[in-house]
Amino acid sequence: MQSGVREETASAEQAVPVKQTKTRKDEKSSGGYWKTQWKQVKRYKRLLWFILPAALFTLVFSYFPMLGVLFSFKGPEFDLTKADVLYNLTHGSWTFQNYLDIFVDDSFYRAIANTLIINVFRLLICFPLSIVIAIQLSELKSQKLAKAILIIISIPNFLSWAIVVGTWSGLLDPDVGVLGRFTGHIMAEDSWFKPLVVFLSAWKGAGWGCILFYSAIASIDKTYYESATLDGANRLQKTWYLTLPSIMPTIALMLVLNISGMMAVGFEQVYTMMQVKSDLVDSQIILDTYLYEISVVNRTNIPFATGLGVFNGLIALALMLIGNAITTKTMKRGLW
Amino acid sequence: MKSLKQLFKKNPNKIHESRVDVGLNILNIVLLSAMVIVVLFPLLNYFSLAFNDGNFNIDVVLFPVHPSFEAFDYVLAGEISKHFWRSFGNSVIITAAVTIMSNLVEAMAAYPLSKRDCPFRGTIMMYFIITMLFSAGIIPIYLVMHTFGLLNNIWSIILVSVSNVTHLLYFKTFFEGIPTDIEEAARLDGASDIALFFRIVVPMSLPIIGSCCFFSIVGTWNSYGTAMLFISGSAAGQDAQPLSYYIYLLLQRSALNKDNPWLVMNQRNVEAAAMVMSIIPILLLYPYVVRYIRSGLAIGSVKG
User: Fold this and answer.
1) Cα gap B300→B198, rounded to integer Å
2) What is the SS3 assignment for A94?
3) What residues of chain B, 70 to 89, have a C-beta less than 8 Å from chain A?
4) Residue B273: pLDDT over 50
5) Is ipTM > 0.90 here?
6) How far is it, in rounded angstroms, from Cα B110 to Cα B176?
7) What residues of chain B lie within 8 A of the CB of A211, using their CB?
8) Domain spans, chain B
9) Percent of chain B residues topping a pLDDT of 90
10) What residues are paired with B52 via a beta bridge?
11) Per mean pLDDT, which of A10-24, A276-290, B88-102 is the most reliable?
12) pTM assigned to the model
C-alpha cells in the first residue's frame, strides 16, 4: 500500500509537465497530494467506472479466497461438507500445528524435490532447445521454408495435455504402439517418468517457444552479417559472436519469466501422465498434484492441505519477486 | 586435372561458402527435418487410429489401413454421444464466455489505467498485480465456489477465469501507445467516454485484442485443471464437464463401458476419434496462427 502511494506520487509528478501545468500550480499553492488526486478523480469520474468490473472480479475471486489462508490455522476437525466460510471460521480451534506437520511430511519433501528436478531439467533442455531451433530456422536459406517449419512444429502447443499424453501413450503402447513394441511400456515405468515429462514438455512447447527468439533474430540488422562474412567469419562464428549476443536480452527476459512461472506449470501434464499407470507413485508427485490429491481426492485433512497451498503460493511469490528484482536491476524494466 | 580444378573454382560473384558452412547447412536441414518428423509422426499415427478399424490397429503406421468410421459413429451418435455433445457444448459456452467477458473487462479496466494522470494509478495497478503474485491455493477458491453453490456448474470455471492480469498489462501497454490527439479531438466533438472507448480506442487496438482473444480461446478450450477442481469426474458433474476434461476422463478407461466387446478392441480408436473432434475448433483458428507467424511476429516480441 505504502509503496503504491509513493509510486502514484511519482507518476503524477511525471505526468505534470506533459499535460497539466495547472495541477502543478495547485499542488504548490495548496500542497495536498489528496487534493490533487481528488481533482483528478472528478476529472476522471466516468472513466474510473471502467475499472469497476475487473476490480470486482478480482475482489471476489482473488482477494476473497485469500481470507482462506486463515483455514490453514484451524484444527483437523474442520468440516468441508459444511463448507460455510463463516461456520468454519467461528467453530473449531486455532492451531499452528498444520505448518509444523508440513515440515515433517515426507511426501512434501519428495514433492518439492520432484518439482525442482522436473523444472530444472525442463529449463536446461526445453529452453535452450527453443533457442537452437530458432537459430537453425534463421540459418535456412529460404525463410518461407523456415516459417512453414515453424507453423508445423508449433502445432502441439495447441493441443490439450490430455491429447498429448493420449497420443504418446498410444504410440508407446506395448501391444499396438508403433514405438511401444520396441521400447516396452515405458510410460508406466517409474524411472522413465521424469525424462518423459521433460520430453513431452519439449515436444509440446519448444516449437511455439522458439517463435519469440526467431523474431528477435529476424530483427537483427542484416548488414552486421554481411560485414562479418567479408571479415571471413564462418557460420558458427557468426552464430556465436553475432546472433547469440544480439538476442541475449530476449533470452535473459524469457529465462527470468520461466523461472518466475515455475510453480504454475505442470499440474495438468504430470497428473494426466500419472493416470496412465493409474496409481499414485510417490516418486512422481509434484507439489501441485500432491496438493490436488490430498485436498480434492482424499479430503482428509483440509487445514493441512490449505497450509500446503499457502506454502506453494509463497514459493511462487518468492520466485516472482526474485525474477522481478533481477529484471529491474539488469534490464531496467520490471516483469509487470 | 585442370578441368577438374575449374569445376571447383569459386564463383567470383558469389561470396564463397566454406566447407564447414556447407556441412553445417546439411546438418541443419537434417536436424530440422528430424524435428518435423518427431512432431508430425505421433500425430499422424494416433489420429489415423480414429479412422481405422480397431482389429487392425497394430498395422497402422501413418495412415489408416482398414478405414472405418465406427469410432466416430460411436462418439458422435453411439453410446457416449450424449455425454460427448454435452461436454462439447459446455466447452463452447465456457470458451465464448471467458473470451468475451475476460477481454472486455480487462480492456475496459486498462483504458483509464493507461492514462498517465489517472488518479491512484499506481495503487490500482498494485491491487491487480498482487493477485498475479500470490494465490491462496485451491482449497479457499473451492470453498468460495461451494459458498456460491457453483460446484459442478460451468459458471465456476467461467467466473474464476475472467480475471486475467496478464491481458490487463498487454492492453495497458498497447493503449499507452495510442496517440492522445485523436481522443482529444473526439472529445472536443462531444464524444462521451464510453463512445470514445468503443468507437475509437477499440477499433485502433484490434491487433492486441485479437491476440488476447486468441490466447483466451486456446487456453480455455484446452485447459481442464480448473474443471478438475470444481467439477466432479463422476456422474454428479456429467452435465458440466468441458470437452478437454471429458477426453481426460476417456483416457482413464474406467469411463468406458467394459461389457461392450467392440469397445474393448476399439478403445484407442474411440479416444482418437474424440480427440480429432476436439481439435477441429483449434484447426479453424490455425489460419490465424499462420498469419501471426508470417506477419513478422510483431506482438509480444522484445527487440533484440
Assistant:
1) 24
2) strand
3) none
4) yes
5) no
6) 9
7) 293, 297
8) 81-255
9) 32
10) B67
11) B88-102
12) 0.84
